[in-house]
Amino acid sequence: MPVRLSPETLDEIATSGVAVPTYDRDGITAGIVHFGVGGFHRAHQAMVIDRLLQRGEAREYGICGVGVLEQDRRMATAMAEQGGLYTLVLKHPDGTRESRVVGSIVEYLLAVDDPDAVVEKMAHPDTRIVSLTITEGGYNFDHVTGEFVADEPGVAADLRGDGPPRTVFGLVVEALRRRRDRGLEPFTVMSCDNIQGNGHVARSMFTAYARLQDPAFAGWMDEHVSFPNSMVDRITPVTADEDRACVRDELGIDDAWPVVAEPFFQWVLEDDHPAGRPPYEDADVQLVEDVEPYELMKLRLLNASHQGLCYFGYLSGYRYAHEATQDPAIATFLRRYMDEEGSPTLHPVPGIDLEDYKATLIERFQNPEVRDTLARLCAESSDRIPKWLLPVVRENLAADRPVTLSAGIVASWARYDEGTDESGEPIEIVDRLAEPLHRIALTQREDRLAFIANRQVFGDLVDDERFVAAYRDALDGLITDGAHATVERLSRS
Ligand SMILES: NC(=O)c1ccc[n+]([C@@H]2O[C@H](COP(=O)([O-])OP(=O)(O)OC[C@H]3O[C@@H](n4cnc5c(N)ncnc54)[C@H](O)[C@@H]3O)[C@@H](O)[C@H]2O)c1
Ligand SMILES: O=P(O)(O)OC[C@@H](O)[C@@H](O)[C@H](O)[C@H](O)CO
Questions:
Q1: Residue 155's closest CA among 217, 210, 202?
Q2: Digit-coded pLDDT (tens) for 309-346
Q3: Above 0.95 for ipTM, yes or no?
Q4: Span 449-459, pLDDT tens digits
Q5: pTM of full prediction above 0.90
Q6: Parallel, antiparallel, or unpaired for β 3-4 and 253-254?
Q7: Mean pLDDT to the nearest integer, 336-365
Q8: Beta-carbon contacts of residue 328 (< 8 Å; ≥ 6 apart)
Q9: 44 lines ligand 2 (CB under 6 A)
Q10: Is the dihedral of CA 77, 78, 80, 81 positive or negative?
């Protein structure tokens, strides 16, 4: 019989050979409040703290998770039932696994139910870091202007102050204000999302929100709150029922929400935590002064390549990242995109051999055990393509370098957003702009440039003749010859 995961059953689970926390979880202080406890936080930052706790370190840096959205209620329930414990399973390509019960999340609060408890938690003197994995869309900035979007309904309600704060902006800024008023030093706001200059972006968005309420306080924040940049990496798919079944059948653990991830791990973090930080360096975190070269490398090679494989892959009939990347045409296309269009926009990256890095990326994508779905990679494209791929396009256009393969990726997205695959089956477009993007994509059979004429997403790219020619050529191919023939042709072009 599987054992239900809880603090009371840890000893029993340990007897079956699964690694569990052997540190005393009672008395750990929550010095980190984390917004957006999804798969990635639990496979990455929470794993780091667990490793430190296992070494007898960081006992003042336990994690209090926070969910801001109603959708986080399921996580709140799992966390409550399991005392914050969960199983992390790292899957190697040869089928071997490393499994461990992680114990670093010691508390979880649902802001939807009790926003003031969340604000008070952050305002507590024990809190030194507020970290974020709230997705690219969570930062609420306009892709073209870079400005904070103040009329987003949740944000607008927080700004009006009709009730207690409900968004991450309202909650965090209110907590900082209470700390200042109580004479406490501010916590560090540490973004761990896939956004170039994630610390800079977090700084501008949180202070922009504060400025709309109280310009003087925004000035105080800008002067006193630190927002380190970071590059974070570990492919973490959405937990599937088969993962729960696997943890139950193979490890004998009944876990409501385990996490599965690849073994690869990287975290490059700007060393700027005036309120204190865990000894991250003891858990393989690279602390550096300048994160930018690392983050450009990762976002423009790994993340942009994910977009390069997901639409072509899905339209070619694949459903998993490894299936798509094991297709030689797609693998060659990705490698050429990385070499010819992504890499020329990068800065030298200290300590990294880019050739190895790119080869490893293809191997990571091909890991058959991870089972990362193309659906995950195709989701929220309007938040991803403008942040990862369009900067590559713009830099290459400005430098008169090729953009053919990037334009092909954009065209594959446009074809995907028509909402029907090549067998006539419907595609579920998951994107906060799904409805308008789908409507526009449906007109491209008559007007090939309709999709990229959407300046809200693409800015003025439609005015660039070189980009337009490459885009039109790829979209023509997608429509007349199909996705696989087009990616194959582009991979040889
Ligand atoms: N999954 C990965 O492989 C991976 C790897 C590196 C970095 N990341 C970063 O982590 C982010 C989250 O990935 P995940 O796999 O954990 O996703 P997930 O869907 O499992 O979790 C996302 C969390 O963010 C919350 N969230 C979403 N929008 C929000 C908003 N507007 N305000 C507050 N909370 C919000 C969700 O409620 C959820 O708790 C990614 O978007 C990316 O920036 C993910
Ligand atoms: O999670 P997102 O939305 O930032 O992007 C989707 C994937 O590209 C991303 O999650 C990667 O798997 C990850 O960045 C690998 O470290």
A1: 210
A2: 999 999 999 999 999 999 999 999 999 999 999 999 99
A3: yes
A4: 999 999 999 99
A5: yes
A6: parallel
A7: 97
A8: none
A9: no
A10: positive
Ligand nearest to the Cα of 35, by number: 1
473 Cβ below 6 A of ligand 1:
no
Q: To 10 degrees, what angle do helices 465-480 and 404-416 make?
A: 50
The answer to whether the CB of 305 is under 6 A from ligand 2 is: no
Q: How many A from CA of 15 to the centre of ligand 2?
A: 35
User: Measured from the CB, is residue 383 less than 6 Å from ligand 1?
Assistant: no
Amino acid at 262: E
Ligand 1 centre distance from Cα of residue 134 (Å)? 5
Q: What does DSSP assign to residue 278? A: -
Helix, strand, coil shares of the chain, percent, nearest 5, are: 50, 15, 35
- The answer, yes or no, to whether any atom of ligand 2 lies below 6 A from the CB of 306, is yes
Long-range pairs of 442-446 with CB within 8 A, sequence gap ≥ 24: 442/418, 444/414, 444/418, 444/475, 444/479, 445/479
162 pLDDT exceeds 90? no
Residue 40 CB–ligand 1 contact under 6 Å = yes
The CA angle 60-63-66, to the nearest 5 degrees, is 145
Cα–Cα distances in angstroms (integers) from residue 326 to residues 70, 160, 333, 373, in the given order = 38, 52, 12, 14
